[in-house]
Fold:
Amino acid sequence: MTLHSEIFEQPERLAALLEKQKQTVLEIAKAIRARNVQYAFLAARGTSDNAGRYANYLWGAHNGLPLALATPSLFTYYQSPPQLKGALVIGVSQSGQSPDIVSVLEEGRKQGCLTLAITNVPDSPLAKAADLVLDIQAGVEKAVAATKTYTTELMAIAMLSTALNASEEHWRELASVSKWADQALALDQRIAQMAQRYRYMSQCVVLGRGFNYATAFEWALKLKELTYVIAEPYSSADFQHGPIAMVAGGFPVLAVAPNGKVRASMQDMLTRLRKQKDAELVVISDHADVLALAQSPIQLPPQIPEWLTPLVCILPAQLFACHLTEVKGYDTEKPRSITKVTETH
Amino acid sequence: MTLHSEIFEQPERLAALLEKQKQTVLEIAKAIRARNVQYAFLAARGTSDNAGRYANYLWGAHNGLPLALATPSLFTYYQSPPQLKGALVIGVSQSGQSPDIVSVLEEGRKQGCLTLAITNVPDSPLAKAADLVLDIQAGVEKAVAATKTYTTELMAIAMLSTALNASEEHWRELASVSKWADQALALDQRIAQMAQRYRYMSQCVVLGRGFNYATAFEWALKLKELTYVIAEPYSSADFQHGPIAMVAGGFPVLAVAPNGKVRASMQDMLTRLRKQKDAELVVISDHADVLALAQSPIQLPPQIPEWLTPLVCILPAQLFACHLTEVKGYDTEKPRSITKVTETH
Structure:
């Protein structure tokens, strides 16, 4: 099955990207530092937009760089793009083909901003519209549901953060990602078994916070694309401001809660969901007390630095979505209604 | 019922806000113009975050002002706020009390940025942390589900846009909002009848685009808070990049598609959903062909300028959520698990 084998390509692709593109990333960082960049303005859709959510937290926390997620329709339908002075304009797209994302970069360049394309197709329209191109080198992605291009986009974002900080410690930590990814994939058979329990799940929410807000969105997207489960992602804080009302006994809540600064806040929410609301919990974590709250605990390899957990946490989540698709009797290779390259305006 | 009566207060509250706060808004606009503001950095949660989504499109389209939605956990849990040079830092909160939103403004002020609070409580911690305060004057909101504070937040955002542009035409258009709101509320009985059909709806998606992306989010939030329906909001473009796979025959899709620049794109999506996927459509629009696609059409008053449609479209959506709550046998005044003021960190 192509989806499953592409999920298993990830440790190798991540290692190769880190090795082969480090020099390019250092040059991109140099070009960025040479400009008076005050914030990043990032355009993406779908899986790539979720990678953008990681950039929002990582570049904010590690690089002090605020990030605005673009609203592409302002550039296309409304034809009234904002003034982008001071912005580094970034487009993230596997195919580099969606016209609305390309138009954001074209406008950024027209306004004299520095522009960067993060893409799997270095001769795509998106790459051609950009001053700087970061090729994620994931190889051709055949499965409709994106997996290896998501994690390589995250790796590209993490490498750029590291290059901007010139942090040798972070480069060293990045070198272990491929090994952790391998360890996470060893959960494959256990997750295949676990997915049985969710054969008749039709809806769920997916919680994550901080760096793993992105992971919650991407896990939910894989479930929607592949299993047709209505899966809605939230930060645990936004969830508390209203949507928690939906949860009644047995309601399934999937959560990404590894060690780190937001772990205690996630643990409080999961404790409340389990003890007071009798929710059903599927939890990805490396923390024993958090895992103990879940009917379905998914144990991460230990000692991953918090900023890199999104690159590893998504792997068991991808496996969960992949196996649940089969358990539900659907075709992982032919999700209904969607195509590999979606062109929106 | 308090919720229903607060929904009906909106025409009056909107008119009063426009009249009483115009001078304050002009002064705020003057203070903003005196600074070298390159983008807005806005922090909010829940309903107020949806008002921020409107600001994202409106200020982008009418004022050329890019907007970044803040990630408050960077300011609280991670304690590594981004460098906000060049930003106008804005907090939007009905109560003005959530510590994470207050901390974003405090940090903005510390970094020397101009700060603005948009709130219903002008002596709240949020207001005290801000250089500029825009009091939305909605009166005490007793219902747990926010309605009048959402539309007055939108009005405050629209007034600020108009003041920044010094557009007399836009001030004139704003003066009609209260009348359109009145006309929209006349749909009350029809919507109460319509809600019967959705007695057993347990999940749905809510689509909107451009200015009404915010409306889709806010409609979905009211449904989640009050009716416990799993309601997931999307722009029609993001929906196409994956989640459309969830839709099978009879799947309910709620949509906000008034006349304007994105109407044709919404109409294409709704046509596909109805004709190819046999979806169930509830549609708010003022366009006959769009309404004709819906099993449950909700007709807006005619001739509302597109930029002001979010202030009117949300009213029938609020009524729909309110009546559906009663139809399902729940209490509109006591949604489970949520409180009026949610304090997140």
In short: Chain B touches chain A through 72 residues (CB under 8 Å). Residues 181-327 of chain B form a domain with the Rossmann fold fold (CATH 3.40.50.10490).
